[in-house]
Amino acid sequence: MKEISEPLPNRFGIIYLQYKKYIPFVLYAIFGVAFYLLLLNHVLPKQYELKPGMVSKETIIAPVTKIDEVATKQARNRAAAAVPDQYYKDDKITENQIKLIDNIFADARRNITDKSLKEEEKISNLKDAISKDLSQEFYLKLVRIPPDELQNLRMETRNIVNEILSDGVKQENLAEKRDLVDRKIALSSLSSNARFIVRELARKCIIVNEVYDEKKTEKMREVAREEVEAIQIRKGQIIVSAGEEITTDQYRKLQVLGLIKEKNNPWPYLGLALLTGLMLKLLFFYIRRFHPKMHEDHPKLLMFILILLLTLLSMKIIAIGQNLKWSTLGYFAPVSFGAMLITLLINVELAFGGVMVLGVAASILFNNENHMLFDFRFALVSFISGATSAFALAGVKRRSSILQAGLIASLTSVVPIIAISFMNPSDMNWQTLLMSTGFGMANGIFSAVLTIGFLPIFESMFGILSPLRLLELGNPNHPLLRKLLIEAPGTYHHSVIVGNLSEAAAEAIGADGLLARVGAYYHDVGKIKRPQFFIENQINRQNPHDKISPNLSKTIIISHARDGVELLKQYKIPKPIQDIAAQHHGTTLIKYFYYKALNECNGCKVIEEDYRYPGPKAQFKEAAIVGICDCVEAAVRSLARPTPSRIENLVRKIIRDRLEDGQFDECHLTLKELDIVAKSVCETLQGIFHSRIEYPDEPKSTVVKGVKHG
């Protein structure tokens, strides 16, 4: 017996149902692997198996800017060694030497004026009192000097010694300083004997008075070390040229840059893997917190991941172009592009989470100008510009709002760029600042252009209607709505009221009010094909259904849903709105013509199923709400006296009948939500069909016109 194989689509459906719970994890894993691979080269550069003395087969360029610690240390040591020894002048020594001179001349005066002493005794006493280092000739001439000249000799000696010692005397220039005495004494008017005495005594009193200052010397050398800037191996610098023999210094630089391949060094790989895992975990919990249903909405989760990857890829391309000349090109990273797309296609909360991930990536992708792994400058600017653009697009009304959001992001990016530059004055130069602000300004505008270009692609690919697209479709000047207004004006006005009812009801239960309103505008466009067969367009006209059979009438009525879908496809209206047009009647019974057929059947069999819409039933809440509001609006309009109680009874009856008929079985509307919808519809209808004050007729005027008084 031949085995009947299961249809292929059903197979895929069964496989999908079996493994659907694993799909989010697969998507996260794909994103994690891509994130890891895109960032890997910025954590671990290309490495080489080289040694000193080997010939390099290729030119090796520094991939990042790093400090050469060894060269920096050598340069700082050279600067410190160039600082001379530091001394301080001890003024106490000068004072002591001046006092010594005064004491010498005081002793000389006492001995010279003592007439009881012989010359030899005077010399002996002076040698004992002063010093035996002075020459015999000095003492002979000293004791023979008239006492009244001693004061002049003392002052001359004091002045010379004080002047020379005041300038400071080091050990290495002691002889030079003593020789100064000869030049100074030569200008004196003293006698030759007196000059001899002053010269020898002054030279003796000139001693070292500058002391080595160890602390000051070390401090000055430390200052000299600190003044030497760190020697950097700059990004883009050629370390080794192709065909060049590698020197020890070049090899050391390659080691500093991490370009020498070391055996079994898994740590950089492990570190990036841990970081990637942490980012995925945070992203998972963030989504579960702010958009828990997205883990069940696999197409939307896939779209979110694709937007992040697309943004990361664009950042990677820009990072490749970053070099020493364009060191701040990272400010051009289009993080705002991803933020705006996620905001428009999903929501602003998820955009904020995506911006955090992209900010971390930016700090690694554009870290090449700094020797740190994370360059917070690019992370900060990316986060601020991305978050600003996302918030600027919350609740947008026009497509031009994307450009406005991009401009706001550009202007906002400039502020942190300038702030960072001002906070690092040592690294700031006006040319770099101007270039950085230029990249920041271009970033937001470039992101806006990308968003405008990619938004329709994602809308088409995932069948998603962004608020901007819905607002465009809801414009009364849309060609299809204009066609509806002109060819079926009654249907147009009916659709506008249904749109207002649907929007309020959808928002009341947390559904998409904008989708419900715009879907309601288009739900009956199929009536354009035969507008005269629908009562709202039969103003002052005979009803054509009176002349045809109930069977033909129901065929015409049923066909408006199918005709509407075809017309919507022709005008390239997105599928969710096509679905509302196809599903708003579900499989409800066309009661009027069914009962009319029963009355006219004359015993023939009337099949109820033939008088039901073919469906499908509403598959989502907005379609069900439009169906309720469509039926309610037409029914309430037929009420002779639409009082609040009558309106409420009618609304609840219609909802109850549809519920019992199983029309809400496939759209997940709860009883509580149906009650909220009923209340919302009643409130809106009461505002439309409220009672008005009956104004009395204007009384006839008793004033005679045209008569001038007085």
TrEMBL record:
Membrane-spanning parts: 21-44, 267-287, 299-319, 339-366, 378-396, 402-422, 434-458
Gene3D superfamilies associated with the record: Hypothetical protein af1432
The UniProt record lists the keyword Transmembrane helix: yes
Superkingdom: Bacteria
UniProt KW Protein biosynthesis keyword: no
Alphabetical UniProt keywords: Membrane, Transmembrane, Transmembrane helix
Occurrences of domain HD/PDEase (ranges): 487-644
PANTHER family in the cross-refs: CYCLIC-DI-AMP PHOSPHODIESTERASE PGPH
NCBIfam families linked: HDIG
Protein name in the entry: HD/PDEase domain-containing protein
